[in-house]
Amino acid sequence: MVEGRLNLEPEVQQIFQAIDNNRNFLLSGGAGSGKTYSLVSVIRQVIAENPTIKVACMTYTNAAVREIEERVNHKNLNVSTIHDFLWDNIKHFQKELKEAVISLANDENVTKISIDGINPVPDDFYNNLEDGIQYKEYLKLREGIISHDELLIIANYLFEKYPKLSSIVKDKYKFIFIDEYQDTSKDVVETFLTHFEKSTRKNIIGFFGDAMQSIYDDGIGNLDEYKGDDPSTVKEIKKEQNRRNPQKVIDLANKLRTDGIRQVPFADMKAPNMTADGTMKQGTILFLYSTSDDISDVEHYLTQNYAWDFNNSEETKELNLTHNLIADKAGFRTLMNIYDRDHILSFRGRIKRFIKDNNITTDFSENTFGEVIHILQDGKSGRELNAVSPTNTMQIFIDNNTELYDYAKSLNYSEFSKMYVDKDQLLDDKKQDENDENKKGSKRDNLIRHLFKIQNNISLYQNKKYNEFLRVTDFRLHITSTASKRALKINIDNLINVGNKTVEEVINDAHEKGICLIDDKLTTFKEENPYLYNQVKDVEYHEFQKLYKYLEGQTPFSTQHKTKGAEFNNVLVILDNGGWNNYNFEKMFLGTATASVLVRTQKIFYVCCTRAKENLGVFFHNPSVQVIAKAKEWFGDENVIDIGE
């Protein structure tokens, strides 16, 4: 055996057998199995055996990026996101990039790439583009700026059309490893496993992940169509140990898995799920229910009977299905409604779709939104009128927000129709705890980013992190004397007392006091998004402070999706059955959901349960007798408790 391989764990030895046979491989491992540990071992050994070759590693989580970069610090290792990797390898081929964007924009089957008002897009559309096609956080196709989703489609197109591109990447990287493969776009997997095959050059593609943890709809989920025993297929290697969870959580998780992997405790004294005397932690699993849906009752029960501490966000996490369910508890409902429940914007979308679906070519660039509505509704009745009128839900919202609707109708239609509003602009890049790092490529908009800068100043000062505060405050430019330091103290002390001030008042205060100056990005945002800015500016600033605490990991709340990859001593999972199309926890327990809903719900539940390092609590509001019976089968009779009694 090659030197150094004898000391590797069995699964990694199997990976190298696949590598020796020039086979692409997949390491499948359940939650807590140490897939990242295996990935690091593979990279180290590959570099040890091939010290002159380059290795690419793509991963999604900040923790994994840090761990890989810290533990394998080598000049020939390139660790990045998939998006950054693809862009780095196509950005210099500007002629081909321009052709790709135009071709895809003209392809009726590609719905995600289109240039409004131009159909078809002429071949010379980008000829005078000074900076070429650019990849940024936002999308402006008219100006040649693509964003995350478009990049994956365009890269796939280029690798399919130009096999030489695959040869170039293969020559550069003899090994390409993809972590959390199940969340990778189908376009990306097709690029690496189908289009790469058109090149005769040799390299190895390795995937690491868990099909049971594929909880995003835009991910490939599994590699079943690529796996097999034939040398041309992907060799699957299973890792069935569990280093994280106590015995009772492992037993529950095995009942939820549907892919044949049955996890066993990792027999190692150093594993987190082992006690100091070498025995396996048992942990606790509780299925709690009540006719009341007041979560504070659940928190009180766990605090009183099991000593859970909901004030410690690093130790204890409460997982909800969506941010919307958390908004009321965490105190940022008004902001959430602005970014996620604005039915005037829903009506705008209805109008845009009508114009597109009916191939209406009228130039509305000089019209207001209200004028466009009038033009489209004029002379219509019955079904035709309904098609360009608000739905009942939209109309109720409009009736309750008449001033906002009147303002929307006064806006230029072309500008208003391009305005993008999504909850990711408010909520993206949530940390699991205060020690987590911000990810690359946050989707937060420039208004929320500016408010974060203000609150970051306030937070650092309040927490007596004065050196860090001095590094980030814009006032640092004016600190030239003791008097200026006194002025800074007065200014920041005054800024902290926000009281009932609005967002705009605090923005102006922070600017006037020199703490956080209004920059070009915020000014541009106000000019380009007046509809959104005019709503947020009137929200009381203390509500944003609550959002800040939530996003900075200073509360016990998290969504079930955002927690993937994290782990906590105590985990409370709230099973909510509120009208979700994609999830149904009751039918999951009963096994009566449609196949797609059942699989999706099982996976999100599996991910949640396996976050627990010590204790797991699951709360189900008012379950049926049948659900309780199934819960007793999964959790044990003694662990199914009616806390309302």
Structural write-up:
The radius of gyration is 27 Å and the shape is globular. Strand 6, helix 8 and strand 7 form a beta-alpha-beta unit. The protein has a 6-stranded parallel beta sheet with strand order 3-2-6-7-1-8. The protein is of the alpha/beta class.
- Overall pLDDT metric: 88
SS-based class:
alpha/beta
The N- and C-terminal alpha carbons lie at a distance of: 64 Å
Low-confidence stretches: none
Overall shape:
globular
Beta-strand percentage range: 5-15%
Radius of gyration: 27 Å
Please describe the topology of this protein.
Layout: H1 10-20, E1 25-29, H2 35-49, E2 55-58, H3 62-71, E3 77-80, H4 82-90, H5 94-105, E4 134-135, E5 145-146, H6 148-161, H7 163-172, E6 175-179, H8 186-193, E7 204-209, E8 235-239, E9 241-242, H9 247-256, E10 264-265, E11 284-290, H10 295-306, E12 316-320, H11 323-330, H12 333-340, H13 343-357, H14 369-377, H15 382-386, H16 392-400, H17 402-410, H18 413-418, H19 424-427, H20 446-462, H21 466-472, H22 482-496, H23 503-512, H24 520-528, H25 530-536, H26 541-551, E13 557-559, E14 568-575, H27 585-590, H28 595-609, E15 612-621, H29 625-635, E16 640-642
Parallel strand pairs: 1-7, 1-8, 2-3, 2-6, 4-5, 6-7, 9-10, 11-15, 11-16, 12-13, 12-14, 14-15
Helix pairs in contact: 1-2, 4-6, 6-7, 6-8, 9-28, 13-16, 20-21, 24-25
